[in-house]
User: Fold this.
Amino acid sequence: MAEQNVFQMAFVLHVKPFRESSLICDLLTQFDGRVSVMAYKQKFTNPYQVFTPLVVKLKPGQGDLYFIDKLDHVGNTLPLKTSRLYSAYYVNELIVKLLSRINDSEYFFERYTQTINDLAGTSDIEPCLRQFEMTLLDEMGVWPDLTSETENGHGVQDEATYHVNPELGVMPAWDKHVKAYTGRTLKAIQGADWHDKTTLQTAKLLLRELINFHLGGQILKSRQFFKSMNKY
Amino acid sequence: MSFPVLLEDLIRSLKVLPGVGAKSAQRMAFALLEGERLGGKKLASTLTNAIAGIKHCQSCRNYTDVELCELCSNPRRVLNGQICVVANPSDVAAIEQTGHFQGRYFVLMGLLSPLDGIGPEELGLDKLKHLMQDDTSNELILATNPTVEGEATAHYIAEIAQTLGLKVSRIAQGVPVGGELGMVDGKTLGHAFSGRKIL
Assistant:
């Protein structure tokens, strides 16, 4: 149930036309998490653009679909360009494909806002994305605590090696054909300590493996932006 | 109430058109059957021929019934050297109506939008690159919509064009002719100021 009679901040994750005069917007809102809303098209401009902060009030529609009761404010679209823009698209695509329900809406909305603002600024892209991926998996309830073995809760040892399984969590490495991580690296990833470049690279591989597992075969189109850019 | 199978089929078929729901489709079907049977026959044969005969131009991807569309096979337009990149065939019609552009077009048939499943592969960018490498090409004009998707697509193509050393420009944004400054939204007015011309 959406918070009614309350103005709240929102970002459009995805928008598609509906009939001649309407739009169906997939919103990430401050209090209600992900909400689908129907909005009327405006004559010359479309305020429902991705990466543009909005302040809206929702009213119930049919079933899970809501209407925009009032569009109070439309902020400036974040100045995202080239790889920073494709990264922001990647963030949106991850939410749409993996996170149908958000429990802690305010916290997640704050993390999303921070991520896309960082991407629009001068921060390094990779740490921003890794941090967000970890937040997303945590919100899904599938992020393993990398500082301890999942089965027995024993803390990971710096020099020992471990497997991270998407379903079973952290376990001592035993299969040489499966990627293994040192305890030190796992602790650094859990603590988002990106001082060492190799930690960042390892985190990318680990998070990609976890995300691909939960995508269950769905393809992330935004990843192709980067691959295709090198092709042309 | 149920209709005869053929009539049900006709109503269902008419619903493929944008903005046509069950009621409108039913009204159209009755109109065709009641007073426009000849028109309906003509519509059916035209539709069959159009679906079979209309394809994408080999050069610009606009709709055509021959290999190269009229605009792409015009030597004057080829020699002009300018290529205008647009999202849809309707954009070509709009620009042609102005009479301001004398070059060739490239129709992307969409804009980059990962959540709609449209990536660089779907926009025919390999064909566009081929066109950019043509000796006669000297400028790429990016005329995609001023939306986030339009800007993303424009920047993506601009990066490719820059690697080929081609001049790239973006259409201007600003105050509409006959408009009042007080009625223009802040963002458009901002663009109008940043893109102002020296007189």
